[in-house]
Amino acid sequence: ERGNGQAMTRLGDMFRAGRGVASGAAEAMAWYRKAAGRGDAAAQFALGEMTRGGEGVKADAAGGLDWYLKAAAQDHAGAARQLGRAYEKGEGVAADSVDAYGWYAAASALGEDEARRELDSLVLRMSPGELERSHGRTAAAAAKGEVKAQYQQGLVLEKGEGLRADPSGAVKIFRKAADGGLLAAQLKLGYIFYFGAEHLKAE
């Protein structure tokens, strides 16, 4: 079923871009909807992009977010980043820096480099209260074993981000996320052990 969904998504991509077939947004959406119904995150993300941008349908920012949420629930990094941007800018949803922080952090943990830059920029504009709430949400999720939250908590401890930096504590939380299978945390640990002696002084 999932394999069929992926094939349907590729057909949607072809019709959307006009690769080897006549370009057609309606035909693309039809294939994406079939694939999305089979749980394909890439199709759900594409539907979010098309719905928000008005490709083949009337533009609907809130409707686009619904598709992004479905894709992000399956760890689609691009969808998580777009949700972060929506909450930061108030597009299709009430602006909320704390929610934006959470989605940008999730996208970053999934390997979306631009989301990390957007998050760093957002942090500079957040109030102390907003940062405190964001850190609280992150810590609560990390305590439940959510690896993306653990990765973000490690970054907060590493850099400080309005708090006192704790490099050795960062290493410990990165290890938890790495043990949980998060690639970003595994790569981060490799970098630390190779280059970052400062992180290991208290180990």
Notes on the protein architecture:
This protein is globular. It is mainly α and 203 residues long. The model has no long low-confidence stretch (mean pLDDT 91). The termini are far apart. The protein has twelve helices and no strands. Helix 9 runs antiparallel to helix 10 (167-179) and helix 10 (167-179) packs across helix 11 (183-195). Helix content is 75%, strand content 0%. It has helices at residues 2-17, 25-37, 41-53, 61-72, 77-89, 97-109, 113-125, 128-143, 147-159, 167-179, 183-195, 197-200.
Number of helices: 12
What is the C-alpha radius of gyration, as a whole number of Å? 19 Å
Overall average residue pLDDT: 91
SSE ordering: HHHHHHHHHHHH
Present the secondary structure layout:
Layout: H1 2-17, H2 25-37, H3 41-53, H4 61-72, H5 77-89, H6 97-109, H7 113-125, H8 128-143, H9 147-159, H10 167-179, H11 183-195, H12 197-200
Helix pairs in contact: 1-2, 2-3, 3-4, 4-5, 5-6, 5-7, 6-7, 6-8, 6-9, 8-9, 9-10, 10-11
Overview in brief:
With 203 residues, this protein is mainly alpha-helical.
